[in-house]
Amino acid sequence: MKPLSIGVAVxxxxxxxxxxxxxxxxxxxxxxxxxxxxxGAVGLMLAHTTLRSSLISPFLRVFSTIFAVEYVVTALxxxxxxxxxxxxxxxxxxxPASLATTIAIFGLLVHLISFIPVxxxxxxxxxxxxxTEDRGHIEISGLGTRHVTERRFASLLIVALVLINxxxxxxxxxxxxxxxxxxxxxxNKDLPAFWSxxxxxxxxxxAIAVVSxxxxxxxxxxxxxxxxxxxxxxxxxLWLDDGRLYRAALAGQxxxxxxxxxxxxxxxxxxxxxxxxxxxxxxxxxxxxxxIILWTIPVDFTIPGTEIIVPGLPFWVALIISLIGTWxxxxxxxxxxxxxxxxxxxxxxxxxxxxxxREYSEQVALLRGENAERRILxxxxxxxxxxxxxIVGRTLRLxxxxxxxxQANVVIPYIIVAPYFFLGKITLGQMTQTAxxxxxxxxxxxxxxxxYQSLASYKAVxxxxxxxxxxxxxxxxxxxxxxxxxxxxxxxxxLVLRDLVLDLPDGREIVxxxxxxxxxxRPRWSRAPPAPESxxxxxxSPESGPMDGVRSTALPVLQSCCCRSSRMFRQAR
Length: 573
Hints:
65% of the residues lie in helices and 10% in strands.
């Protein structure tokens, strides 16, 4: 990342120098350009965070790299515009004054949020895929199969998705200005402008939006399925390695229902992580872009009943309403996190009980255990029902507030700007553009309000995967730290056990053997006499004693044991 941080610093230095030499404003006695100075200042901060990006999550580092590269391109492009080096024929493609600063702020925010505990918890689950050296293959039509490193291919897909989302935000901004001009044409009864804007602007950008959405869907699907395959294989590989599936069960509820953790939680984690990373980026881009539109509307908004002018009044109204709504939503919906966590555990316990009952159906029927199993199932499903009603009660409170909130927000922008339209200070197009921009800003600011319930489920998924991974790590430690069974190569024919101690999971000792030798014997199979029942028993041959072939006094020998589906028994000679 050092070369990239140097590039960011160089671009920032160019902006600062150009801002001082080409500026027309007066800042501390200097004829400086405040926009270029701000681009240079945030660029230097971005260069510092880019240099230190090795300290943050590899998953977030992908986004940090994207913003650093975009800053270099847009900052140098705007410097060229201000210095008069930008081609006149490409004036419509010149970057806006605020674009480079906005991108730099995004890069700084990525670095800052990487230290938030919940973000660190999520990134610890996502990071391994973006540092793996595993190689996979991709099928390219006409080119055959190509082998690629998973982390590099995943990073390329993330870059493509970020660029597509930024393109879609740009399309929405362009359509916002189309909306303004189109309604102005309607107000002025300008029929040629009406049709020209419809076919020359709207249809063109709408077609690009449709194509970009299709490309985004395909790219997103490829990323999700490759990520899920790698993560699932990794988790069940760790779970099955060296007896950890048994040792993990000793960790208690931390490792309950591993099938659900691997099959469902991994899938939900990937879907939500994508939604709350790429979608969040798109939301923040929308917030910044449409906030600028609200701020630059050429109207002197005043506080109702006074002559006090408030620049960008619609933006401040949207901000205040959204902050209050977000706080109240969190206050009402916070208990949903634990309720969703328990819901998944209760559902998994109930499924496991049903699967276990199906597996042992013969034993249950023979032992007349239906009533006992019914009581177990009733208890498990009773937990589901009681937790379900708790979720319903909390969700009703949350929906009462959020539904009322969003219904009220439909008319608020018109209440703010309609008086200025009636006074003739703004056109119909400006009023509709303001209302549309207000809706975009308000929607971005209420991102967490609209998704609070799904966020609660996402947090529960993260907690379950984190505890499952901790249980696997604990199982690995149980298999490596003493006391443990050490296996050594032995060239004799006998199995020798030394210093054997067997404990229950609660620590109680049940067997202690200094030395146990089991001699290799030649097995002989005999057929048991037929029995009238469908169950048959193993029994030692009368020719051999109960300890024949075993030289030990430490372990008792079972005189008989039962099996269900065999009429053969093995006898040691």
